Amino acid sequence: MPDRGGGPTGPRIxxxxxxxxxxxxxxxxxxxxxxxxxxxxxAGFWTDWLWYRSVHYSSVFTTTLWTxxxxxxxxxxxMALAVxxxxxxxxxxxxPLSAMSMEQQSLDRYRMGIAPYKxxxxxxxxxxxxxxxxxxxxGQWRTxxxxxxxxxxxxxxxxxxxxxxxxxxxLPWYRFLLGFGFAATILCLIAAAxxxxxxxGLRVTSPGAxxxxxxxxxxxxxxxxxxxxxxxxxxxDRYGLAVKSSDFKATGNWTGLRYVxxxxxxxxxxxxxxxxxxxxLLFFATLWRRTWQLPVIGFGLMVLSAILIGGLxxxxxxxFQVQPNEQAxxxxxxxxxxxxTREAYGIDDTKVTEYAGKATTSDKTRLRSDxxxxxxxRIMDPNIVSPTFQQLQQMKNxxxxxxxxxxxxxxxxxxxQDTVIGLRELNLAGIPKNNWxxxxxxxxxxxxxxxxxGTAADAQGQPVFTEYDLPSRGSLGTYEQRIxxxxxxxxxxxxxxxxxxxxxxxxxxxxTTSYDGRSGVNLDNPLNRAAYAVAFNEPQILYSxxxxxxxxxxxxxxxxxxxxxxxxxxxxDGDAYPAVVNGxxxxxxxxxxxxxxxxxxSRTTLGDTTADSLTATSNNRTVVAQQNQVNYIRxxxxxxxxxxxxxxxxxxxxxxxPVLKTWMKAFPGTVQPRGAISRDLMAHLRYPQDLFKVxxxxxxxxxxxxxxxxxxxxxxxxxxxxxxxxxxxxxxxYYLSMKMPDQSAQAFSLSTTFTPNGRDNLxxxxxxxxxxxxxxxxxxxxxKLPTSTTVDGPKQVQSQFNSEQDIAAAIKLLxxxxxxVEYGNLLxxxxxxxxxxxxxxxxxxxxxxxxxxxxxxxxxxxRTAFENTLGEALDKVFGTQGSTPPPSTGTTNPPxxxxxxxxxxxxxxxxxxxxxxxxxxxxxxxxxxxYAKAQKDLxxxxxxARDAxxxxxxxxxxGDTGGAKGNDRSSGGNSGGKES
Length: 980
Description:
By secondary structure, this protein is α+β, with helices and mostly antiparallel strands. Among the domains are: about 50-210, no CATH class; about 215-345, no CATH class; about 490-555, no CATH class; about 900-970. It contains 28 helices and 34 strands. The longest helix is centred in the N-terminal third of the chain and has 35 residues, at about 20-55.
């Protein structure tokens, strides 16, 4: 017999089976793989827990986690038990003997094959459906928390007279339960039918009865349960009509009942509910009658009724009752929609005033004076001048400013002034040498605030900085300048350990620091290091010598990201902005509570209604929506994020909002009362842009309060496209200190314009008081232009600017060489019955890679001016040249000085400035070499004047003579610049 082993005396090896060593290796690898997967899952959970604990919002993590776990197990077990019980019952009710037929003989093979594994197969099936159902239920944690913690709105819907909380908090949970019931019933029905078929309870081709009595009774109960659930669905559908969205030809997007809903669908749903209840009882009756005849007939009648009563009858009502007299039929329901929508979006108190659209006086002197009082016209566009901040105040390549700066109010010279502000944030792309240590240990933070007057520019068109240099200094006083948390800080840093961090460098060398805040997660624990090494896929965290005692890891560092994490039930405004508050830099984040269940209120899509020409080019301006489709919104929370410690604080802003009260009940202690807002912080809170954009979109239709007018569509407006942007996106709203006709003084406001649908002329101007802490905060005013005459809208005004022959020639001159002209924000200001438009014009080119303010465009009542300064442009428009004092410097001689050295320096500065202007006006285009030389001479002269004045008047203010050091570098000093 041939030897099949390893030799005459060697051991026999069974062919095809791996050796013991290979089996051991495979088992070891398998165990390691399982352990690796388990630790990866653990690392994600553990790092999340550590982070929430580090920001002192561990209750949010635990509440959310236990809610998800509870829903997972409860509904997972319910589904598993329901399916498992029905499989077991179907198996128990199997016939003792199967019929002798080809069908049953072929099934015998399957029955015999699964017989040894029946228990395991049952467990596998139930576990699978349980896991799927549990995972689905866990995703409903918000729905559960809102249902169990819901508080009343104390407002009733006009149809069923139920509190709004029923639709906002209860109905979504009932619908989930109904959906779960349908899913469980269908799965049980499928599982039971398959089991009955496998064991002979159901037969397809066998002779005799198609189903045993036991199978008939079992399946009838399941079918009866399904029909009973359908009856419940019909009943809930009645209430669902109040929050149902539909496309209404007369008004577009529509929510709530219309005539056909109230008079056809509503009674139809009630009738179908009764039919479904009767049909369900017929199915349950088969437990005694053991026949399918009556329930099948009942089910057929229910289906037929659903087609005739639920489909055909409403169509007949719509065709023959509504369409012939639609406005009269729909008017009462439209009125309900108007009222509910205006309440749900907070626009019910909007004040609409008729506005002439043309000047009420011809007194040019008065108009010129009123123009100064009407608004503090901002000629520094925060969306244009970021490169200028970058060039003049970046200081180091590893710092950068955001693409869009912010507008805030700060006290200058004893009064609040609009200020353009930005933070000098960390820019990893500018690090001299990128490596793991530099990126995460050495370069960890930005440094300092940079701010400039919003209403002024110097002689060179540069911002007039009020906070400047590195470290920053100026009008903001002393504050913690290090910025560990910001909009551009998107990577993690490890701080506080043996590795020193770079603060900044100056003439004396590199300054280092070590983070002493309590933010972040401590890495002293080896378990923590291992978890973060896995979570961040960075093994060096585990063994690097740069990590030691006191090391902390900082991550989730953008303000919106942190607020969203600690309050996952809030929708976050797209624009977080910085402010210096009580000696610290605080990011201020507006947050909203929303709902999709406000009866009769029309829905809007947040992603669409908050989009404009800025969000199209900047992801930092995009709203972070928990629920994109909403029909109720409130700015219920003001949040702050400390730029140094990362501390997140949530403040209750809307004390009446029932949605916020519900979430505060679900997450107690997470939101501080409104009274905890400090006076200094209150001074920097403002009306949020995204809420304003949602409200203005709704007001394009819902400024109308009369149902008949609303139905005709004759008063529909639209938000105009940005005339200075070729993208075609909506014009963004602008923050501006201005005075509406019914106001006695300027107020910090957020404003926008409207045009008629499909046209470019102006139909309305909208403004909201944006300064928190005032009695009029949040008050929306609309100036409605007459329809009998036309008033130019933004696009038409921009076209006039571009088509004026003199302006076009001047712009062409500005574009000489490789220069580019950039148009700033086109601001609209109500003035004595008319509308004043102002737009700054910037030039970028030649040796300069950043925009400088060169001209200001102004138009009023068809008169247009294109001048070097805002004051000159206003003088020309109103024909009052010479009636106002000339600017401090520029085309005029410098003021005399008692100090001959200062006087000579100022005269030299004037000559240098004039030489620069002449260089820009050369016939063949600007002479940038001569211009650069003139600017250097100008700066040298101003520096000489500053030094001489400082010596002559020790203790005087730097800004009174030559400007601060930061302005020497950027704008030639305040005395050498001209304020526009």
